[in-house]
Amino acid sequence: MGIPGYEFGTIMKKFLKAPNIPMQSDDMEHKKEEDISEWYNELVELAGLCDKRYPVKGLNIWLPYGWKIMQLIDAKIRKMFDDTGHAEVCFPLLIPENEFQKEAEHIKGFSAQVFWVTHAGENPLDIKLVLRPTSETAMYSMFSIWIRSHGDLPMKLYQIVNVFRYETKQTRAFIRVREIHFFESHTCHADAEDAERQIKENVWIMEKLGSALCLPYILHKRPDWDKFAGAVYSLGADLLIGEKTLQIGTIHQYHENFARAYGIMYEDRDGSHKYCHQTTFGLSERLVGAIVGVHGDNSGLILPPSIAPYQVVIVPVPKKELKEKIENYARQIYEALNKEGIRVHIDLRDLRPGNKYYDWELKGVPLRIEVGQKEMEEEKVTVAVRNTKEKITLAKEKLVSDIKSLLDAFASQLYEKARKELEENVHFINSIEEGKNKQGILRFNWCGKEACGIEIEKRLDVSVLGIPVNEKSKHGKCIICGAETDIIADAGRAL
Amino acid sequence: MGIPGYEFGTIMKKFLKAPNIPMQSDDMEHKKEEDISEWYNELVELAGLCDKRYPVKGLNIWLPYGWKIMQLIDAKIRKMFDDTGHAEVCFPLLIPENEFQKEAEHIKGFSAQVFWVTHAGENPLDIKLVLRPTSETAMYSMFSIWIRSHGDLPMKLYQIVNVFRYETKQTRAFIRVREIHFFESHTCHADAEDAERQIKENVWIMEKLGSALCLPYILHKRPDWDKFAGAVYSLGADLLIGEKTLQIGTIHQYHENFARAYGIMYEDRDGSHKYCHQTTFGLSERLVGAIVGVHGDNSGLILPPSIAPYQVVIVPVPKKELKEKIENYARQIYEALNKEGIRVHIDLRDLRPGNKYYDWELKGVPLRIEVGQKEMEEEKVTVAVRNTKEKITLAKEKLVSDIKSLLDAFASQLYEKARKELEENVHFINSIEEGKNKQGILRFNWCGKEACGIEIEKRLDVSVLGIPVNEKSKHGKCIICGAETDIIADAGRAL
Minimal Cα distance from A6: which residue of B? Predict the structure, then answer.
């Protein structure tokens, strides 16, 4: 009945750190509005998403509930990339030093944060190996073999693997870790035009994904000093967790940069040999972090139905002598929903219903169905909606379609609430002074020069996110040098 | 229409090594009956399963078709373990040296074949890290935190990850590689009895999996000198590829060995503290190798329907003026099958039908549907069955149920053929002399002593696989020392 391992029952409760966690109350120790950082840290543990006690810093253990959420996100991503003609591959983890060092900018960007394998068994390796921090340097010498003619293009591949970066900053579950569950697509094109078309497709996929996960974001063209190592330009999708920014996806235009370093060429129709143009798209377990941070409240997670391991949990509220009948009624409900592909679970643990309610609220299940004597006799169910906490009575008769509508409405509300919060936290500032007490995203006129950008970062203790590509330009004066400009840029402080 | 990237069309053909591969003939360069080793190597490349040209030995690239097969196998395995109450986790890749070295036998077994991470960025690490060769030593210190009381038991977890072993022998795609796609379940129990019950469950799952993949095998209790490092005993599932043996799954009973080393204890009902008993179950990408080697023939792969990326491929055979009509007819067939959950694909590439036939034979698609003018006019289809190469005419009317029956029959035939081949290649020998010219699996009476076992291995150049646990014992004399015994044992030569 449902997927095992999500109940606290046998397994999950032992994954929880503190024995005296307030499971009897719907309030967490840390409040989202008071200390979002500690609230976040508390919640990822409380909800059984990951365990941070593994004996190497920044390497966390995915627990069953967290891992299932990640897998459901991966499935969404796979479908979107399969549907747009990408094929999935899986490249080796280990990259030989000489391959890794072919593209100068790239090695400069990553060399300080790679793990090195230097020995096997008792013996030093002839050629040292890098744990992939990203897979350009693993893939591209193979691309130079695979691609021969214009007929091979475009070539669109992706993989979902773990990558490794030796983070020196404070680590944070799903957001800044050293082993990262990672998605990367790599495409090769005949010319700049087709590579630009791919960037548009990537932007479109990012939109669809943001929508599926109820995660509104602002797409920025990164400033030159913050683009990906080896890229011509980079786009980043940024959202807010509380008042801190989080990058949840990146899209890079490489043009011929890597193709020249790795010799990725094709024979064109006229017999000439040309370098390929390349793009990449990166996503990661940060999507889980974003879902936790954007949607969660002081009662726990709130999961978008698209990736909730259980979209509906049924809790029977039995009277002693009616226990069996009520549980049978609950099973009928289960069967009806399960048959229609809704991810549903019955909670038959030997716990008081109230405890079960808190559990499933903590775990962010969108809809909880309560069935007791009254519901059974009237052929109804009571539905508790996780985000609004309202309770609704539905007739059993048309339950499936009503539940589907509720799940759709749930997703829309979640998205809309997050969109509004994001919008309200973008502040246009006309001077550095104005920005000093503002949180969230700061928007301002910028001349576009790096010197002014760096100055802004210093004086406001922010990072420049770049130019918001879907916003209208606005005439004004650069808030540093005062030059007339139509460019607006955003900045913020990373979580 | 279908999953992209499996056709040779745009992408796949460039993954092929040789430009002059005999795609016009249904014969491979190497014949299975003549040189199974070279036949296997040729086939994994020809069929686009993996690319072995990655610049580190023993690290291969999973190509889209091979990776999809692996993912379908993973999905089968996940379902079986979820259904038996296991929960999926994902542990970090990197294991600190001190954790790795807690269980003496285990470290002795693995230390010669682990990769060591010694540096991050420019700096040496304080504690060296091992790339997991298996995850006992990553998991068990966490188990000692998670498990507190008898109520936490049994705890049944699994993960699907890549593991790393520095193979010094000749590598072979899917069968002996240095980065291994790996399944591992780890269970903890209150006592030896419950751990034995788990072993039985594991044996039962192995049987179900072998049946789903049409892979009959012999289950052996490994001799003591070949059990897993740290185990009390090990069971191995062995099959034959040609006349060579291949281990496709292992089940280990640890009892308290690891629990003592890692302090995995629980409080029993009476307040006493006891060590857990543990078991593991390991599977790997060798399952792909076994499917290639056991079922394939000189025309290519033959895939069990349960894990075939396409169970049915439709090839329209168009006459010029009827092209559109015939393709529409093909689409109707596609829709009917797709709607019923059959993995089906239409091949609309601009190639001659004959070339398409060879392609899909090479890729092992169980059923190929040909539709031309005749089929369209008579509301029929022609079905070519991959394993028998027979052609069958089916009426469109009851196509779905007929195709389902054909797929079921296909799977049964595949299993039965392999079972018969395995059975025919088990040879009972009464003396060392008798074994000298025999291939396949050699079965003999054995006194059970290690010295005699080692002597058999030396004199026949075989490995002792162990005692076939589902075979009846047989009275006789040990073929080395002549002692009376009821034990029979098997031996063979590994691929």
Answer: B87
CB contact under 8 A, B121 and A131: no
Q: Which of A10, A90, A116 sits opposite B62 (nearest CB)?
A: A90
Q: Which CATH class is domain B428-492?
A: alpha beta
CATH 3.40.50.1240 correct for A426-492:
no
| ipTM entry | 0.95
| CA distances to A93, B372, B379 from B58, in Å | 12, 46, 51
CB A466 within 8 A of CB A223: yes
Report the distance separating Cα A186 and Cα A280, nearest Å: 5
* Cβ A327 vs Cβ A375: under 8 Å: no
In the block, which residue shows the tokens 């980065």? Answer: B179
CA distance B283 to B250: 7
Nearest to B118 among A119, A145, A148 (CB): A119
Closest CA to B249 of B283, B219, B293, B199: B283
Among B6, B110, B117, the strongest candidate for a mutation testing the A interface, having the largest count of A CBs within 10 A, is B117
- Angle at which helix B36-46 crosses helix B286-295, to 10 degrees, equals 110
Q: Tokens 């900018």 correspond to what residue?
A: A105
3-state secondary structure of B437: coil
**Which helix H or strand E contains B94, and what residues bound it?**
strand B94-96
Query: Tokens 């093909």 — which residue?
Result: B330
CA distance A284 to chain B (A): 15
pLDDT per residue as tens, chain A (495 positions) = 333 344 433 334 434 433 334 444 456 889 999 999 999 999 999 999 999 999 999 999 999 999 999 999 999 999 999 999 999 999 999 999 999 998 888 888 888 999 999 999 989 999 999 999 999 999 999 999 999 999 899 999 999 999 999 988 899 999 999 999 999 999 999 999 999 999 999 999 999 999 999 999 999 999 999 999 999 999 999 999 999 999 999 999 999 999 999 999 999 999 999 999 999 999 999 999 999 999 999 999 999 999 999 999 999 998 889 999 999 999 999 999 999 999 999 999 888 898 899 889 999 999 999 999 999 999 999 999 999 999 999 999 999 999 999 999 999 999 999 999 999 999 999 999 999 989 999 999 999 999 999 999 999 999 999 999 999 999 999 999 999 999 999 999 998
Q: How many helices (H) and strands (E) does chain A have?
A: 14, 25
Q: How far is Cα A69 from Cα B450, in angstroms, rounded to an integer? A: 49
Superfamily of domain A310-413: Anticodon-binding domain (3.40.50.800)
Q: Exposed, middle or buried: residue B5 (CB in 10 Å: 0-12, 13-18, 19+)?
A: buried
Q: Residue-wise over A235-263: b if at least 16 C-beta within 10 A, else e?
A: bbbbbbbbebbbbbbbbbbbbbbbbebbe
Cβ contact B112–A118 (<8 Å): no
Which residues in chain B touch residue A151, judged by CB atoms under 8 angstroms apart? 10
- Which amino acid, one-letter code, is at B449? K
Domain range list for chain A: 65-293, 310-413, 426-492
Nearest to B179 among A6, A93, A96 (CB): A93
Beta strands B344-346 and B380-385 are unpaired
- Strand-pair category, B312-316 with B367-371: parallel
Tell me: domain A65-293, CATH 3.30.930.10, correct? yes
Name the token pair of A255.
Answer: 């043009």
CATH architecture designation of domain B310-409: 3-Layer(aba) Sandwich (3.40)
Provide the 3-class DSSP secondary structure of residue B480. coil
Grouping H, G, I as helix, E, B as strand and the rest as coil, residue A493 is: coil
Run of H or E including A354: helix A353-362
User: Which residue is closest to B5 within chain A, CA to CA?
Assistant: A87
Is the pTM of the predicted complex or chain greater than 0.90? yes
